[in-house]
Amino acid sequence: MGSKKYAIGLDYGTQSGRAVLVEVETGNIVAQAVKPYTHGVMDEYLPDGRTKLPMDWALQHPADYMEVVEITIPEVLKAAGIDGEDVIGLSTDFTACTILPTDKNGEPLCYKEDLKSEPHAYVKLWKHHAAQPEANKITEIAEQRGETFLNRYGGKISSEWMEPKVLQILNEAPEIYDRAEKIMEVGDWVNYMLTGEEKRSSCYAGYKEIWHKQDGYPSKDFFKALDPRMENLVEEKMSDKIYPLGMKAGELNEEWAAKTGLKPGTAVGVGIIDAHSGVPGIGITKPGQLLMVMGTSTCHILLGETEEIVPGMCGVVEDGVMPGYFAYEAGQACVGDHFEWLVENCVPASYTEEAKESGIGIHQLLTEKAQKLKPGESGLLALDWWNGNRTPYVDYDLTGMMLGCTLLTKPEEMYRALIEATAYGTNLVIETFEKNGVKIDELFACGGIAEKNKMMMQIYADVTNREIRISASDQTPALGAAMFGAVAAGKANGGYDSIFEAAEVMGKVKEEYYKPIPENVAVYKKLYEEYKTLSDYFAAGGNDVMKRLKALKAQVME
Prior knowledge:
Pfam families: FGGY_C, FGGY_N
Largest sheet: 7 strands, mixed
GO molecular function: ribulokinase activity
Mean pLDDT: 96
Domain Carbohydrate kinase FGGY C-terminal: 291-489
Helix content: 25-40%
Protein name: Ribulokinase
Pathway: Carbohydrate degradation; L-arabinose degradation via L-ribulose; D-xylulose 5-phosphate from L-arabinose (bacterial route): step 2/3
């Protein structure tokens, strides 16, 4: 056993999971390992290769999550050359709302031989949007009943929440609903597997399950109004015992200690949503500091001292990230995803060949070409709704759009227009918060895009007309999760007694940051006004053509 102590953050994303080994005393990452999910995102077929999935489905296989634990933790211990005895705690961060139906012992229903070809027995990933009709119904009934919880979620419930996904199971596969003795956030489920204790997180419950610290879950009458069979949903399949961040979810059991090389009894912290974990990971400890967690999508997290009602926010939860504060969440459903879409579908072979000859990736090539363009030079304007809209419209039936294309339009111009669209979307989020009494003083960013794409971050600084600071760690959510692991262990065991103490020591930003360029700010101000005009037209009732086209597509595909 060495003198230094370590914590592990298990970071579960959309395509892969990773373990990050962190030195508790400094916050330095000493080793990390990544495991792509064996089954990936299942949006066309189940693993049997025969069962085809309908439009807007996105599933995963729960075995993939435990493979991450079994493979990556031994890898980081080996890479760092340390003994598992020196790891004092671990915690997880996870995409949400990502849910799994299980039996009473926590065994996933998709493991059952007779259910391997039943889509509803698998994990429904956060971006499973096929439950949007159910989300719309929940919003409609909540409005009719005057349910106050609706205001805490920006006035609408989305398909990314727990209850719409559960209602879809009930509507389309009632036998699965009946056999599911537990329906869990997979972040909570992984902890359950590691410790044998079922302790559901207040972060998942507050942001994605319509739970409130004072009020609890919606009433039985509300669930009964959705469907009489759901009257006792919480008691029968969820849990009204919710645990705050910073607590121990339990201790690592003998089985998973043997599989990972960690010692039995290692503290396991209550889980947190991946984006939210970035708040302590970057060192944010006070209100007014907005964090942008940038990846396939972007999540915006902000601490506040009061509970305000903000249209289109994804949630406001007391103690939702840092104890003693309300934590607001907003977001954009499509960021990195639509850059990838462009590369896969709109880039000619000549560009791919040019990138290969230059020894760089296609995204880097497009960035280098786009960087030569001045703001407004492309003549293009895009809407960033290629995967629907989170904030402020909470409408996943909205779709992407690009205006201004001609026969001379080039891929790098489209690439830059999509980047600019995401910056406009973020600026709209900032405006929406500030118009509704939630002040924003500083901008922070983390994630692969913030780390690698300097052009994009400069565009964000220019569009928002604000300075932007970048996380010093390239694994900020994982670092935040490791902090919660250290807090779960406690100071007596070499960790910390509060997440504030951990964040002050372990969370860091880079010295370099982005400043707005005045001449770019002036141009982007004009383009942003055009963006808002288009947004109002297509999202606020001016023209529902996006929804009509989507409905027609679904009708034709039946």
